[in-house]
Amino acid sequence: MTGRTTTAATVSGAGLDFEIADIEVDEPRGTEVLVRIEAVSVCHTDISVQSGVFPYAMPAVLGHEGAGVVEQVGPEVTRLRPGQRVSISFDFCGHCDRCVAGLPGQCREYLARNFGPGKRPDGSANLWRDGQPLAGNFFGQSTFAGYALANERNAIPVNEDLDVSPELLAPLGCGVQTGSGAILNVLRPHPGSTVVVFGAGTVGMSALMAAALLPVRRLIAVDVNAQRLALARDLGATDVVDPTGIDVVAAIKDLTGGGADYALEASGVEGVALQAFSSLGTGGTLAVEGLASFTSTAEIPLADLVNFSKHVVGVVEGASNPPIYLPYLTSLVATGKVPLGRITRTGYKLSDINAAVADMHNGEVIKPVLTP
């Protein structure tokens, strides 16, 4: 095995803290690229895997919101070159019918490539610690490290004319595209419509910032955290609702005059999907992105679904096509139209990852960003 030694945050088993260790990263093969990581943000999906809520092979290197500079390319790479800045997103095969249709979030191999066995698609390991293989290739990247292997498909080049820091590029690869894409790619609210977002974390706040760009009549944020509701107002929400101790469905119907046209469930709290569905008016559409676990369920009253012509759609990664959507999203951040810095906190080193996770758990931070 030849490769590069780097520092990484590893997790040895479900429920255990991250540990900082030296690991070996393999040479890039085929269409792989080796990226020197300049920043990586923490997503709740990382925490769900670390805690064992979402299954993944262990021991592992997680991290799936990385940004950096291409250091080396595999022999079959044609789209990237060393020295290019990239944001790294989720992995997809690029050749199935869904990918060919421009819907890589619906890739037939999505789960295998992003939540798979922690190896390359051919079954080979790409990370080692003390000579033993680690589960890597998480979302096609495993970027809680100084260096990471990605693929020319999911390492998206950054427009060299845009002045965007690595700390702002990193969150685009998952959480920000997930929330903003649900609005811009899926729901697509019409002028004068009403939109309600359940959950004011990274996904929900990104959805709010995207919806604030559109001529909607009312934009409502629902969360139990008063500080986040205040921030939601600053980011464009016309109304905020704390559901604690109230009938949140009645409150939303009162604000919207009978029910929302569009709703996004971004909290991942079981039971909230039903509240979001019930808050819709006739012909309304609910997009569901929050997922507490792989066994989460929601009971939807079919009479309401049918009699009021409601729609429910599941959304992965904002239904985005990263090579197209991430450059657009980057331009929105660069021009200040999406003020992403309002929901991020920088200053964390990779070695501070456990503190960053704790800050997320207690609601102090929405999106912590780590640097090596």
TrEMBL record:
Domain Enoyl reductase (ER): 15-370
Keyword Acetylation on entry: no
One GO MF term attached to the UniProt entry: zinc ion binding
Listed SMART domains: PKS_ER
Signal peptide (UniProt feature, chain positions): none
A family per Pfam: ADH_N
Source organism, top-level taxon: Bacteria
Protein family per UniProt: Belongs to the zinc-containing alcohol dehydrogenase family.
Protein name (Swiss-Prot/TrEMBL): Aryl-alcohol dehydrogenase
Species, as recorded: Kibdelosporangium aridum
